[in-house]
Every structure is written in structure tokens, then in C-alpha cells.
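Lab meeting minutes (informal)
Scribe: AK
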Amino acid sequence: MRIAITTPTAATRRTGNRATASRWAGFLTDLGHEAAINPPPEAGADAMVALHAWRSAQAAAEFRAAHPSKPLVVVLTGTDLYHYLATEPETTSRTLDLADRLVGLHDRVADALPDRFRHKLRIIHQSARGRAARIAPAADAFEVLVVGHLRTEKDPFRTALAARRLPSDSAIRVLHLGAAHDPVWAEAAQAEMAGNARYLWLGDLPPARVRRLMARARLMVLSSHMEGGANVISEAVVSGLPVLASRIDGSVGLLGPAYPGYFPKSDTAALAGLLHRAETDPDYLRELDAACAARRPFFAPERERAQLGALLAELR
């Protein structure tokens, strides 16, 4: 099949949607299909995969109008599930109505969907490839990564605020990787660095540099208010990097309900307590590491490719 993958993300931006589109294009090629990201309508396609129900609403509607019997798959993002279904219900629900299948990226997606759409839902866990081996950690600091662009949904400075509460003898250093959504966010990151010696914003780094830092760091924090199934969790887990995460469905749906590294979202004190415990209690850090290792098989590329192949087989 010739499969068009539509994503609202510009080709030059490193975001979750674009990463998913690029990875799936590779998998679809491996499976014997032709895949193109955001091709022109005149290129033609036998099926469409639309990333983001609300942002891809026009593209999905145009494809369905032009091709009433061809398969349309819509991949649900965190903002679709936890924002646009409530704030833009007509547009978002219309896209879900048009779709032949809906793809969720974590195990709790069904809880956020209206009943009438659940029969269309299939779950595909996003995969990742880590470095072949861990790197010796920094000798002068207990490095904690925050990997995510600076925007409201990510609650991007929660870890920096928690680090301010740590004891004076703590060696924790927060390295924040991600682009600023706009100049206001960049200014806020610069101000946080100026007032917080434990925080360093490194901006949007190439994937190879991110993987290297993941292989060296001691811990990663995902403090988001909403996630559709953050690929950065997959990346951390396969890199052998333990995770602390806000207790939201998007993270619990990836790490499991019994995972020992959750804190209530926006709870700075609770996160500070977990950071201090991870730094000072080797048994707790090993517990986090073991829990992540148990989830690693869920994020194998071969598994994601097989799930994608099974989805397409349903639509033939």
C-alpha cells in the first residue's frame, strides 16, 4: 500500500509527532509498504495515518471525502485526549467518527474516550533504541534529566523548583533538554538558570546527544500535566535510565500502576522528596531501575513494528 502519514509538525522540528511519523515510515517500509510524510494530495495514497485528531482534522476530512472506502487511521495525542475532546469536541469527535481505527499510545487511553469510539481503538506502544552500553556517570554531580520542550503541558520547571528544596549538600544537577515554545519560555529558562545553581537548560539537542546524556545520567523526571504516551519514557527505559513521573494516565499507562516512581502532578515537595531519596538511598534507585527493566520489552522496535503490521492487516 501507499500510505500517507500526516503530521502537524514542521519537518525541521524535533517533536513527538514528527519522531513518531519518521519511525512509522521506516517500519511501514520494512513491512513492504510505501510511506510518505505529509505528501501533496496529488501524490495519491491507498491509506492515511493522521497524527493528532484535532490538528490533522482538515487533512483527515479531505482524505475521507476524496476516498470514502480507503483506510483512515488516527493516532491520538495527549492534547486530543485530555484537552481537545473537551474544548473542541465537534472538530475532534468528527475526526474520530471518520477514522476506521484509532491508535492509542498507552494502556489507559480507553478511559479518556467516549464509549462510541472504543471499538475502533488499538494500542501501540512507542519503541526506542538506546545506546549499547551505559556511560560512567559524572563524577561531580548526580545528574537528573528533564527531556521535553518548554510548554505548559510539560510543567517544564517543576524539577528545577524541586531541586531548590534539596539539602545544601545535595549533588543533584538538573539538565533540561528541549526547545522553548516561544521567547517567553526561553526567557523563563534563562531566569531559572540565573537564580538556581542546580539547573542548566541545554536547549534542543540532536538525538545522538540526547541518547548519550541518557546513558550517563542517574535519573530522568517527566513532570507533565498530560501525555498521550511519551516516547521519552520509552527512550529512558531502553537506555537503562530510571524515571520519576507525575501520576497521570499517560505515564501510568506506560510504566504500570505499581511503578514506584510516581508523584502527584505539580507537587514540588513530593518530587523533591523522591529526588532526595533517589540520590541518598541506593536501594530505592535499584528498585526504580528494576521496575523500568521489567517494562523494557514493551518498548522493543520489533514489537511496535509487529503491532503496526497487525493494525494494517485488519484494514486490508
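Next up, CB showed the second protein from the same session:
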Amino acid sequence: MKRLLSLLSLYALFLGCQSTALTAAKLYIQQNEPLKAEEQLQQALQTEPQNPEAHFLLGKLYADQGKYPEMAASFVRSLELGPKFAPQIQEQRQHYWAREYNEGVRQASAQSPAFPEALAAFQRATVIEPDSLKSWRNLAYVYYQLDSLDTTIRTYQHILALAPSDTSTLYSIGVLCLKQGRAQEAEAALAEHNRLKPGNVEGLVNLAVAHVEQGELAEAERAYNEAAQAAPQDHRPYYNLGNLHFNQKNYPAALAAYQRAVELAPADLESRYNLAVAHLALEQVDSAFPILQQLAAEDPGNAAVWRELGRIHAIKGRVKESEEAYARADSLGR
């Protein structure tokens, strides 16, 4: 009997020691003495590592100090041990996430954006709320503004892991991979984008570009035509289709595509210039000349226009006009 009483007494003393450390930690938290509170919580966890409240309180202390990785680890451990503090943990996460996220927005949208500061704030926000797509999207935006394209792509790939059907992320990955010369990755992302969002002109045009970069010209033509069918009043698919045909020396097809592009967007200078060049490729000098004359009037700083005018004047035997046009092109230096 004495042995039993001794064991019970020892057990009661053991519980009392744990409770004392946790109680002391709470008192120090109320007195705004975080270092002493942390010391007591660490002591409590040494004797009672499965206590979810101790992990929760430790996470709160870390959050107050801006130690967000430590905060996140403590909150995760508390939730692993039980859901009792889940509402308080979510409230804490939301509070600190909003603070860091809003700071990132403020820095990035200032009249003189402070992108390094915004980057740090959004990085902290992703630690606090790892599944917040808004944080990751803004982080990607800032990386892009800082010309860190590889990191931007990796960030978008992380977003895609969180939201595999997010079409805007697939599109962003595709376009950025094209900028990096990573055509195969771009094609994969844009093909999936097209599967999830069929008929999107931007996605189809960029998918066609990815095909062109890999020498897949039939696939590129198919994508351009699909874009033209999806948006028959949009000149861009026809313009790009004209370029595709022109580069293959299929000048009649290029001419037809450029003509359609100009019909849809008569103010587009590039479509009109390419139309003129296609006429020249087919030796239709009289058709090219008035287009180039009008372009020279509207865009007098375009050396390529003056150079083509010089060529036409030479073909027509107008030596003085040809020399003047070539001189104008040379003076523009481009």
C-alpha cells in the first residue's frame, strides 16, 4: 500500500511540474516577456512534447517576433497533435498573412515600386500561408519585375502544383518559357492550356510559336488556323500565319494572310509593311509602292520602309528618288 501511495504521489508531482512551466509561460506572455515565455514553453515541451497548447503558444510567440518558419512548424505540430487550437491557428495565420501580403502590395504598387522589399514581404506571406495562391502569384509577378525569369517560372510551376487546372498559370509558364527559348516546355504548358481553355487566341498563337521554334510547321499552321476560326475578327492569327508562309517562301499564301490581317486591322503598320513585302516577293511592284508610300508618311522613322522604297525606285529607273530613299534609310541607322 505504501508503494502504491508513493507512486501516486510521484505521478502527481510530475504533472504539477508540467503545469507550472505552461502556467508560467502564459503569465510571461501576459506580461509581454516573450523570451521568458519561450524558455518556459521549451521547458514544458521537454516534459510534455505531445501538448498541442504548448506548440500553439510557441507558434504565437514566433509569429510576434517575425519568425515565420518557426511559427509554421509549431502550428503544424500543434495541429498534428489535435484540432483543438485549429481556429486560433487559422486566425493567427490570417492576421500575419494579411499584414505581410498588404505590405508586399504596398511596396510593389508604390509610385516608385520597391520590388526587393515587396519580394521579401510576399516570401514571408507564402511561409505563413503556404497554400495561398494570391501570395504566390504576386511573388511571381515581383520576380518577373526583377528580371528573374527562371525563378518566375519555378514560382508559377509551384502554383500549378497547387492548382493543376489553373489556365492563367499554364499560359504564363508557356509565354515565359518561350522567352527563355524553352520551346518544348512552352508547348507542353500551352497545349494543356488549350485543352482546358479551347479557342483562346493568345494561347493558340503562342502554342503555334512554340511549334515554329521546334520546326513543327504543320502543327503551327494548324494552331494559327484554329485561332483564326476562334476569333475571325482578330488580325493577329492571320498576321502570324502570313509570317509562317512567308518564311517557307509560300508567297501567295503569305499575301492572302496579310491581306486578311490588313482588312481586319487597317491601322496596323506591321501588317501593312509585310503585305507590301509580300507583293514585292511576287514582283508586284505597283501594288507594293502605294502601301510603302503611305507607311513612309505615317511612320517616317522606319528605315525598312525607306529601304524598300529605294528598291522600288531603282527597279523603276528613278535613280535620284532611289538614292534619296536609301540615304534616308541610312540616316535612320536601323
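CB comment: Confidence is low (pLDDT under 50) at residues 1-18.
No objections, moving on.
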